[in-house]
Structure formats: structure tokens, C-alpha cells
Amino acid sequence: MSFGTLSSSEINLLLVIFACEVAAGFWLWRRIATAYINDERSLSPQQRSWLYFYVLALLLILVIAVTLGGILSHFDREWYIKLGAPKTNWVLSPAHYYIFMLCYPIYISVGACMYLLVNNHLPSLIEKLKYPIIISAGVPLIFIPAIDGNLLSYDVTVPEILYVSFYWTASAAWLGFGIAPITYNTMKRFVGELSL
User: Fold this and answer.
1) Fewer CB atoms inside 10 A, N or C side of the chain?
2) Do residues 75 and 136 make contact, with C-beta atoms less than 8 angstroms apart?
3) Is residue 2 a part of any domain in this protein?
4) 38 close to 120: Cβ distance less than 8 angstroms
């Protein structure tokens, strides 16, 4: 596997930066989202509504990051075709650097923070949202952009059909079993608290 023109020391540096981004992102989201230390049973309706708002805000950040990653991954096809990137070796395109160094840390840090926020401060929601949060944060990690040029040709081949089918099935699962239940359950609670 070739990482473009990067040496092994540069790859190690990128991995260190990636780990730092995940740690810093987790610290930031956790800091923002835990303004109230107690769980929802000891909070006022206004404070509970803020907790629900934080869950929705983290979910929005996650959706934006996944959308950005999806848009950037579509740039790869043009990059491979126009620049004639090798079709036999795995090569990182310019879009991959943004996906791996920006989107992936957001997936991991926001997903972990959302899970801990709901688990620690919203016990009435954790049973309904435990698996949807895991799906929402975990499924985007398998949306690895295609770095095999053979999958980026316009020919309809069995590997490409399988790749695209898997991608869209995972996307539908992400929306249907991850994003939708979190949005519905949290919005219902959020609106209910505002009406009190």
C-alpha cells in the first residue's frame, strides 16, 4: 500500500496528529456537553432541555462531518481519472487526507462524547439510544473511500456493484437505525421540556 509520496516518518507523524485530534476533539465536545454534572433527575426542565439540545447539536456535527466526507469521497473518482493515478496500487488522493485527518476524528470524538453524555446524564434515554448512537458513530468509520482505482472506473463490474450496494445499504442503516431514532427520541423530549 502506497501513501502517495509520504515517507514512513511522515505517516507516523500523521498518525500522531490523528490521535491528538481525536483526544482534543473528545475533550472539547465533552467539556461543552457536560455543563451540568448531575443527571436529568436532579435538573430543572430548562437544564434538561439544554442536555437534549447538546445531544442534537452533537448529532448535527456528526451529520455534517459524514456529509462532508461523502462529498469529498466523490472527488476521488475525478482525481483518479483525470490525473491517471495507478489502478493497481492503493494511492491516497488529496481528498483522502481531509477525510482521514478531519472527518474521522470528528466521527470518533463526537460519537464517544454523545454516548457518554446520554449514558451519564440522561439515564431515561440510554436504553433507547445506546445502539443508535453506536450505529451513528460507528458506521461512518466503514465508509472508507475507495482507494483502489479499479473500483473507480465507469465500467459496471461485480466488485463495483458490491461496493456501491454495501455503501448504500450501510448509509440506509446509518440513517434508519442511527440518526432517525436519536433525532426522534431527543426532539420529543426537547419539545416536551420546552412546553413545561
Assistant:
1) N
2) no
3) no
4) no
In tens, the pLDDT along 96-118 reads 777 777 888 888 888 888 888 88
Q: Where are the alpha helices (DSSP H) in the chain?
A: 8-33, 45-83, 94-98, 104-121, 123-138, 158-173, 180-194
Residue in the block written with cell 440522561: 122
**Domain of residue 79, CATH code:** 1.20.1050
Structural contact between residues 172 and 130, judged by C-beta atoms closer than 8 angstroms: no
Which has more pLDDT, 86 or 158? 158
- Is residue 3 in a domain? no
pLDDT at 138 over 50: yes
Domain count across the chain? 1
Q: What is the pLDDT of residues 13-54, one digit of tens each?
A: 777 888 888 888 778 777 766 655 566 667 777 778 888 888
- What pLDDT does residue 74 have? 67
Neighbours of 61 (CB within 10 A): 18
Host domain of residue 77:
8-194
**1 is a domain residue:** no
